[in-house]
Specification:
Number of helices: 0
Shape: globular
Order of helices and strands: EEEEEEEEEEEEEEEEEEEE
Largest sheet: 4 strands, antiparallel
Structural class: mainly beta
Strand content: over 45%
């Protein structure tokens, strides 16, 4: 697997190799579509097997962010669903990552080791702000997360569907304003209250 970068009229690549877990095992990186770029141009790449690369100027440093309970490689220990589904940086050393193999688990790092952040709901999407918190959305709930501090957020009133509310996207221009695509409609959360944005009913499939 390779990470490709186009700069100065030339195509550069970084080969994805094996990453050492804490137990000493070498874990495969494997491919993943998850890429996040922070305001300083640092590129973060998440892989299928729980590894994360931090890339500066085309040079990537790898780490095994998600390990098995025995400190080995998740895939080798039988956890075939573990992977990095989303990454967001809110500071030069503050990172959040979603692991769908852990029932939508959230992980946080602030210059040290990765730690699990307990959530009361599944998580599949992150939106955040440099120097601020992140908002994490699941199927039918969302939370504000600052480090390891989690604050459950309210859903708009009167939302219903056959299978319950379905959050299909989340995006925000600043830490006090968040848009959610819920059950085909678009909502804006700002200052503690909700506003429904006028769109054709049921037409919103995603946002961000």
């Amino acid at each position: 697997w390779y990470l490709l970068r186009y700069a100065g009229g030339q195509l550069h690549w970084e080969k994805w190799d094996l990453i050492g877990a804490s137990s000493g095992f070498e874990c495969q990186t494997a491919g993943r579509h998850t890429i996040h770029v922070d305001p300083n141009g640092v590129v973060y790449v998440g892989t299928d097997y729980g590894a994360i690369a931090t890339c500066v100027g085309g040079v990537c440093t790898w780490e095994q962010a998600i390990e098995s309970d025995s400190g080995g490689c998740p895939y080798d220990d039988g956890d075939f669903s573990t992977g990095i589904d989303d990454i967001f940086a809110t500071g030069s050393s503050k990172l959040y990552a979603l692991d769908p193999g852990n029932s939508g688990g959230l992980y946080y790092k602030n210059g040290g080791d990765w730690v699990a952040v307990p959530l009361a709901h599944h998580a599949s999407r992150i939106v955040g702000f440099w120097g601020g918190p992140v908002y994490v959305a699941g199927y039918d709930a969302w939370s504000k997360v600052d480090g390891t501090q989690v604050t459950p957020m309210p859903m708009p009133s009167g939302i219903s569907s056959v299978n319950g509310p379905q959050i299909r996207g989340i995006w925000g221009p600043d830490s006090n304003t968040v848009y959610l695509a819920i059950s085909g409609d678009l909502y804006k959360y700002s200052g503690g209250g909700w506003t429904e944005i006028d769109t054709p009913s049921g037409s919103v499939k995603g946002i961000g």
